[in-house]
Amino acid sequence: MILYEYPFNERIRTYLRLEHLFVRLAELVKRESPIDHHHALAVIFEIMDVGARADLKTDVLKDIEKQKHVLNGYRGNPVISEQVLDDITAQLDACFTSLNELSGKVGHALTENDWLMSIRSRIGIPGGTCEFDLPAYHAWQSLAADIRQHDLQRWVSPLVPLAESLSLLLRLVRDSGAPQKVIAQAGQYQQMLPQGRTFQLLRLRLDSRLALIPEISCNRLMVSVRFMSQQGDGRLHANTDDAVFDLTLCS
Question: Over the Cα atoms of the chain, what is R_g?
């Protein structure tokens, strides 16, 4: 099975992009090759670029408070475990505190590191980080793997509160929906959304053996999915066969 996710709004779109980068960063830092650590630095700079929005931190803090309000509404419900509610609320409180204690925008502390910023200014230039351009960076890449990993973990640490907050928020959003099995007749599927209800994320799970690629569009009124197949010429062509898949709408 292969999973596709599609955001209903720009805020969730940003959260998903950052989550994608944090997952990639965690994998690269664990490795030992200098080239992997070069790409880890590139991902750190990407996270700083995506997180440069002045209102990102505020949005995350507001969403944490909103989730706490939603969870508190379940208290007293006999089918809901109070212990589970307490545990998740404690996690939300911890994320709120650690994120709120950070000053400035995402990665602001790293901007005060002139050595890192010299790399950031050249990493977008094709071949801009060669040893004759950045000899100090070349020397760092020649250090032992454990030293480079220690440095990377130190530079990643200011980003951890955001990573943990987004991971928890997106998990709660994903858990809010229940999958339903649907059929795209002749390769197309449309569903009108109920009025008065706001969705944040669409999740589509598809059997990878079908070799189909979904083109998804959605707004507050409807969801539309069109399945495509990639032919030998590398282009995408509309699929005209029925396709069964799981659809989850998360609020």
Answer: 22
Q: Is the pLDDT of residue 40 over 90?
A: yes
Place of tokens 């969870």: 71
- Strand segments, DSSP code E, in 114-221 are 180-184, 188-192, 201-206, 213-218
CATH of domain 9-172: 1.10.3900.10
Residue among 228, 249, 236, 234 at smallest CA distance from 184:
228
Q: Is the pLDDT of residue 76 over 80?
A: no
Per cent of the chain over pLDDT 70 is: 100
pLDDT of residue 186: 94
- Measured CA to CA, the distance from residue 99 to residue 93 in angstroms comes to 10
Q: 198: exposed, middle or buried (C-beta count within 10 Å: 0-12, 13-18, 19+)?
A: exposed
The Cα-based distances of 109 to 178, 231, 241 in angstroms read 40, 48, 53
Rounded distance, CA 146 to CA 153, Å? 10
Query: Among candidates 28, 51, 151, 67, which has minimal Cα distance to 102?
Result: 51
Pairing of β 213-218 and β 2-7: unpaired
CA distances from 90 to 65, 67, 84 (A): 12, 12, 10
177-250 sits in which CATH class? mainly beta
Question: In whole angstroms, how far apart are CA 89 and each of 59, 69, 164?
Answer: 18, 10, 14
Residue 74 pLDDT: 79
Give Cα 235 to chain centroid, integer Å. Answer: 28
- Assign 103 to helix, strand or coil: coil
Q: Contact, 4 vs 201, CB < 8 A?
A: no
Write down the domain spans for the chain: 9-172, 177-250
